[in-house]
Amino acid sequence: MSTVQTAAGPPSAVAFAAVYRLFLRGQLTRLRALGLLVLGAVGILLAAVARTADNPVDASANLIAEYGLAVVTPVCTLWVASSLLGDLIEDRLLAYLWLKPVARWVLPAAAIAATFTILVPLTVAPLTIAAVVSGVDELVVATVVAAAIAIAAYSGLFVTLGVRFSRALWWGLAYILVWENGVARIADGTARLAVRSYVVSIISRATDVDIALADRSRVASVAVPAAIAVAGLAVSTWFLTRRDID
Hints:
The protein is an all-alpha fold. It has ten helices and no strands. Helix 5 packs antiparallel against helix 10 (about 220-240) and helix 9 packs antiparallel against helix 10 (about 220-240). The protein is globular. The two termini are about 35 Å apart.
């Protein structure tokens, strides 16, 4: 029985662990880690300034929302997630992962998990420190939750872009800059298609501060980003099953 299982290929859990470790080694370079930490360090410095504002709660909540969740989190996630599978496809190296029978869902799932693992210490942690430095107690837990949820949603979205488009980084930047920071402000209908509107609602609700686009319910603030992450996994898996890798 064990011989048949070996011949048929590794179990999905084993394959997932192997691909996950491969992605971590390939993406967690010193240069990338330094760049991510610099963005986080800027947030900490800005939090120290926000603490001295006339209304530190308002200033700090908007800092986390407008800088941490609207710039740092999506840009850092895009930088990591879009290249995990995208680079392998563009360099025609993905076929080497398919020399063994690996379930197609394993690749995007491992990419999303690796992105999350990299960004928790390099993005979520600095933003949490910024919330602590701000001196607004109710902002700390909200920042951890909002940043983690944002990374999960953006990971699913940007891994899918990496699978589908050859220049996923530019498509992702267009989404962040044009849609989330532009078109989404026009009407509530367009805002509902912005991940940002859901995660900043967590900050707004925790601090009672009015923040742009923060109009989502408590349930939607968690459920919709989670659904985006799952949908990203499903769609990227579908793209991979239909794609010819040479």
